[in-house]
């Protein structure tokens, strides 16, 4: 196939590379499928596929080593289980084809394990993964899971979940293209933190076969399939030029008003890119990478070892660590499986979840205090999903008890934004998470592509909430930053400064553009732009009003 | 038929690593071995899925059975593993 697909640009940049599809789920093979061969042949085919899956797991175990090797090895044992093979054979004798027989055999064990205790809940995921891999081999679709490739590729997916994105190798991913998701989806955030282009809400992206050359324009949202040679060449030249140097040094407006520019990172692996992009510190260090995809909780020592290099990388700056932000959409293998929630975004997540497992929070805080004792950046710790001053006070008390001097909270819940003065009286700082604040204030699920137009932090209601937060916090003598993706939009970054925000934190890939935008504007013109934007009635109107009020930005690329 | 009743040590029981170690040992044994919870239905000790499905917790009693030449030796080795293995994790 050739031609072009149109989506929504979610992270700027122009790149060309081979497509690799990421399939998370495999469709259930219908019971009505005719077997290709005799029962014994079908059974042999199924066992062969299971053995291939096991061999693949063994190979990955050998590469991974350590605890991961143990987990993968146990999974390989399941694929080679003699009882499972018997169940598959029994199913083929009843006239099922190999894919259906595999599916049914796993379904039997799935039921047994699901009925047993909490230790086994995590095994269900392993079991489903095995089943999907075996069935994918039998029906000839891509194996579910991230593509195994040693050379760089453009990742195509229906959508990406936080657990997926934590596993991506930044050295291999040239660009991300998803069928679902909006500009504030996890895909978009990940792409900006990696500094790679992304296109979201791109229908039919998964129809592109693996290996097809695609040209991704993360600004216009166009994905060119099998592009002509001259376009490929043009992309190479443009891509190289956009990486040329822009202003460097600490963030400041044209008239010298300091606005520290910090990086959002998801693990120690992203520190190098943040330092290279001139981050003055870390404004959001997500710690989920330590906890997701684990069968046992990370030890304090392991956590310290992960935090220390990040602190060490910014000896003169600060590092704001967000404690574990898990919930029903980011379940943890070593905790009891969460009750299914009809609405995980409004459920037991963030601080609410940690309050149910206080030991987990206490250990993380202890590890952070120990890491800070090792020197490096000034450590600040904040809690996600905080609703009111009582929660903030409780979290701050826990931090102090653990020996952490500076404690803050994220402002994501509209209630917290409206009563920011109360919260600021209890903590040392607040950091606005504009992505969640937007989804909650506009009642628009971040994960739904169909609501992408409502997931817009430019909406005047969001600007009002940010203004109210800044006013409340400043009146209480507190500090305020933004660590949502709003800070990565150069014009919106200027507006945020105009609203009274003191620090901006974003994916490393956006730092240079934002630095350049701030350097072009005075603090007064930022204030004027903020007022103009708040006077608008729609997100689009606010964007236009701010741009009009900031003619300086036209010269900034 | 040879039989051993053995109590798993404190710990996670026959889950995760101890279960894998036990099944690997049973696979290498010279005779097929079955394992059951006290009073429960015996399952193939060479099947990790069957062993996991028993959901044996630390401190619970299990019954190991086998028949044929070498059954006694095989059960002794596996019984020792159940007692010690769960302890270590």
Describe the structure in your own words.
The complex is a heterodimer of chains A (557) and B (89). Chain A has 557 residues and is of the alpha/beta class. Chain A has helices at 39-64, 66-79, 82-93, 98-115, 121-139, 162-165, 186-194, 229-242, 271-276, 300-312, 351-356, 358-373, 389-401, 414-418, 420-424, 434-441, 460-475, 490-499, 511-520, 523-535, 539-549, and strands at 3-6, 8-11, 14-22, 153-157, 173-178, 198-200, 213-217, 222-225, 261-265, 282-286, 318-322, 378-383, 407-411, 429-432, 479-482, 503-507. In chain A, α17 (460-475) packs across α20 and α18 (490-499) crosses α19 (511-520). The model of chain A has no long low-confidence stretch (mean pLDDT 88). With 89 residues, chain B is α+β, with helices and mostly antiparallel strands. Chain B contains three helices and four strands; from the N terminus they run βαββαβα.
Discrete helix count of chain B: 3
Query: Which geometry of chain A do the CA atoms define?
Result: globular
* Helix coverage percent of chain B: 40-55%
Order of helices and strands of chain B: EHEEHEH
Fold blueprint:
The complex is a heterodimer of chains A (557) and B (89).
Chain A (H helix, E strand, L loop, with lengths): L2 E4 L1 E4 L2 E9 L16 H26 L1 H14 L2 H12 L4 H18 L5 H19 L13 E5 L4 H4 L7 E6 L7 H9 L3 E3 L12 E5 L4 E4 L3 H14 L18 E5 L5 H6 L5 E5 L13 H13 L5 E5 L28 H6 L1 H16 L4 E6 L5 H13 L5 E5 L2 H5 L1 H5 L4 E4 L1 H8 L18 H16 L3 E4 L7 H10 L3 E5 L3 H10 L2 H13 L3 H11 L8
Parallel strand pairs in A: 3-4, 4-5, 5-6, 9-10, 9-16, 10-11, 11-12, 12-13, 13-14, 14-15, 15-16
Antiparallel strand pairs in A: 1-8, 2-6, 3-7, 7-8
Chain B lengths: L1 E6 L8 H13 L4 E5 L5 E2 L3 H7 L6 E6 L4 H18 L1
Antiparallel strand pairs in B: 1-4, 2-3, 2-4
Helix pairs in contact in B: 1-3
